[in-house]
Design goal:
By secondary structure, the chain is α+β, with helices and mostly antiparallel strands. It is found in: Endomembrane system; Endosome.
């Protein structure tokens, strides 16, 4: 594989990260910008391409293969610079065409699926960590991090050859470094600055309790639902009094349609031990005022219902007797005297 061919292989992500801004923003946790290009090659002339941009877990960009246009999923996804996007769209369309020729030259076998991912992670103090990796047929192919190319054992001789040429050509190594460290960090800062109203918002969670089928008949599975919160970090725990229960099982955070999050946290407990449990929720939007939901078992509700029935039934019978005797008395008073 020649150095020029390798440069063509890297162009898509270099182009995708060629837009930027000199904006600097303050962050309190690491933030990642990643561009992913997935390509399926069926033969020398046909294939499909999926391109997307991600800000942590949030997809911000897509690619419309029919129109050859970048999809901005949010107005602020353009960052602070927008005049270069048409140039980028034209570059991507040209690269898609040349991609098929390059893959043929590289002697990859069809059907071939490759994924290229390139981006950066911005830490507090504007410390940048860049990354670039390639997978082939679902397995690691090579990665580039800390100015070093590492072939994967699964990549075989092709991956070793590519890394060897990167080491032998400082221009390629320098180009990768510049884009995953310098350019990417400027893009990320621009997007964070343009989208700060959306990205820094606080959405309070809505919480409720329920039960779910338990794997064991003698156990009760309690479920604490937490939904509609943003940002993503949230602390949820089943409690007995002030004691955290390590048996708490936390699911994965799932995205809602409005870019907020949903979380399901469960606890398997013996039915007789369910009373006195609570679910505690901590989130940045709550300003230190935790949400605490107390579990009240159906057994407690049934006992209360029995007591209410035991009280209400005699009262109802007594009221009926009073009404009946009253009606009889009034009837006897109103009856005419038929005796002389």
């Amino acid at each position: 594989m020649s150095a020029s061919a390798l440069l063509c292989l890297l162009l898509p992500l270099q182009a995708a990260l060629s837009l930027g801004s000199d904006s600097q923003v303050e962050i309190n946790k690491p933030v990642t910008l990643q561009v992913t290009w997935t390509a399926s090659f069926y033969n020398r002339t046909s294939g499909e391409h999926w391109i997307s941009g991600w800000l942590d877990d949030l997809q911000t960009h897509g690619w419309n293969s029919s129109s050859g246009k970048i999809i901005f999923l949010y107005p602020w996804a353009r960052g602070n610079e927008s005049k270069e996007w048409p140039t980028l769209e034209r570059s991507i369309k040209v690269i898609i065409v040349t991609f098929h020729t390059d893959i043929f030259v590289f002697h990859f076998e069809y059907l071939l699926e490759m994924q290229f991912s390139k981006g950066c992670r911005l830490h507090s103090g504007n410390v940048v960590e860049g990354f670039f990796w390639i997978t082939s047929q679902g397995s690691d192919f090579l990665s580039f991090q800390n100015d070093s190319c590492s072939p994967s054992p699964m990549g075989g001789k092709k991956a070793q050859s590519i890394c060897q040429q990167i080491r032998q050509h400082p221009s390629i190594k320098g180009l990768i470094h510049r884009h995953i460290y310098d350019v990417c960090s400027r893009i990320l800062s621009g997007i964070l600055d343009a989208g700060k109203a959306h990205l820094q918002r606080q959405e309070r969670p809505e919480c409720w309790l329920s039960t779910a089928p338990s794997p064991e008949p003698v156990l009760l599975q309690l479920v604490c639902h937490v939904s509609g919160f943003y940002p993503k970090p949230v602390w949820v725990m089943w409690m007995r009094g002030e004691k955290e229960l390590p048996e708490t099982q936390r699911g994965d955070e799932l995205p809602n349609a409005d870019d907020t999050w949903y979380l399901r946290v469960t606890l398997d407990v013996a039915v007789k031990e369910a009373n006195g449990l609570s679910c505690r929720v901590k989130h940045s939007s709550l300003a230190g005022q935790d949400i605490v939901l107390h579990w009240e078992s159906t057994e407690h509700h049934s006992s209360l219902g029995v007591i209410l029935v035991a009280v209400m039934v005699p009262l109802t019978v007594l009221a009926g007797l009073v009404f009946w005797f009253g009606k009889r008395w009034m009837s006897s008073e109103a009856a005419p005297n038929v005796y002389p």
